[in-house]
Design a protein that fits this description.
By secondary structure, this protein is mainly β. Helix content is 7%, strand content 26%. Strands 1-2-3 form a three-stranded antiparallel β-sheet, with no helix packed on it. The radius of gyration is 11 Å and the shape is globular. The structure holds zinc ion. Zinc ion (ZN) binds next to strand 3.
Length: 58
């Protein structure tokens, strides 16, 4: 899997990969991880709120 959490890839993401984390409400943090919530909705969360399974990628 290509690295999607660093480097120029971030510049191509919406908001350059940054925004407010919906879980911890920190602003301008990198939102790089998909988290599935109720109703099978997928949201982007920051590094510290990432689901455990994200740790196995890469
Ligand atoms: Zn967070």
């Amino acid at each position: 899997m290509a690295t999607t959490t660093r480097g120029k890839v971030l510049r191509e993401l919406e908001g350059r990969g940054r925004g407010t984390c919906p879980v911890c409400n920190r602003k301008r943090i990198k939102l790089l991880y998909d988290k599935t919530i109720e109703n099978e909705q997928v949201i982007k969360v920051c590094k510290s709120c990432r689901p455990k399974k994200a740790l196995n990628k890469k």
